[in-house]
Amino acid sequence: MHVAVAPANDWILPQFDFHVEDLGHPGAKLFFSQINPYDALRRAVEASWKWLYGWDGRVGKNKVPRAVQSVKRITLTLRSTMDGVAHTFGSGEGEKQVHFALKHIVNSHQGDTAEKKNTRVREEILGVLVHEIVHCYQYNGKGKAPGGLIEGIADCVRLHDKLPPPHWKRVAPKGKHVPDPERPNDPGEWKWDWNWDAGYERTAYFFDWIDSTWQTWPESSRNTLQNTTSRSPPVTSAAGSAPPPSATSMPELPLPYGWIKQEHESGHPFYVDTRANPPRSIWTHPCEDEQYLKANPSPSPSGPSPPIGKGLFFRALNARLEESDWESEADLFLELTNWPREALWEAYCADYAPPQ
């Protein structure tokens, strides 16, 4: 079946085409029982506009982001023989293809009541479509950005559009501190089970954590993030403020809420939990302390963690990927936040790492 749907009076929406390989497939029947194809695609497109560019069709024809203008047609195909979930690719100038596995739709029809099953499969279809349509509009550092970063931005949009699946949760990997045997006085480094660019919700929650902690950053960092758009180069610091520090001159990362650092008369630092009564002191950083980790477990896996940021960070990151080649040695995170990427990652892991 092939249905071409005209964009009616919506002057900037792309044309939506829709294909179904097997109308008799259980996944196709579920899709049509829960989803209006045009409405679902339109919602996904408008979510991409909103979260990637802060724009919608009511803003005005003279302010359309270039990425929005470039997409002329999106074709959704429900595949009966496809494994996995979905994928998106370009098929011509301004044309995008989204292939969605009918098997995944069937597998998502889960719940202990008919209503819960229908709600779950409907939200999963909408969430997958949002994720895939983001790929139609986002930038990729001229094809050089890591795949995990690209997938993380797409899931960040899904997260902020309130369509995360139940198994998502905000959690960091387990890690261990590895000293350098040749440099006993060197602090060494952390080794993680997975890294910031693992992709999908793992990366999405990291980006959202950066965004949600933004209000506590120095003013120059907040100005950098807020002023970065797809139409102008990034502002690396506020007027009159110091330039972004280098990785070697960074101040120590913020401690968890309620903790302070003090220095012993011997010159060695120690940390105090001021919320405890009486205050508790430790000689290791809280993220390495077993008692602290047990008292601050990872979020419950029973439901997805809600986003608490405004989406500014991944929007600014997407804007930088429009004009910039992705280079592993360059640090767009440092440009946007005044903090090195690895320092942000270690701070996130300190907040959300599971107990060892």
Automatic annotation (TrEMBL):
Q: Region entry Disordered: which residue ranges?
A: 167-190, 220-252
Xref: SUPFAM superfamilies:
WW domain
Biased-composition ranges, Low complexity, are: 232-241
Renumbered to this chain, the Basic and acidic residues biased-composition regions fall at 177-190
Q: Where is the composition biased (Basic residues)?
A: 167-176
Q: Which Gene3D superfamilies match?
A: 2.20.70.10
According to the entry, every stretch annotated as the WW domain falls at: 254-288
Superkingdom to which the source organism belongs: Eukaryota
Q: Which Pfam families match?
A: BSP (PF04450)
Database matches in InterPro entries: Uncharacterised_BSP, WW_dom, WW_dom_sf
Annotated Polar residues bias: 220-231
- Designated name of the protein: Plant basic secretory protein
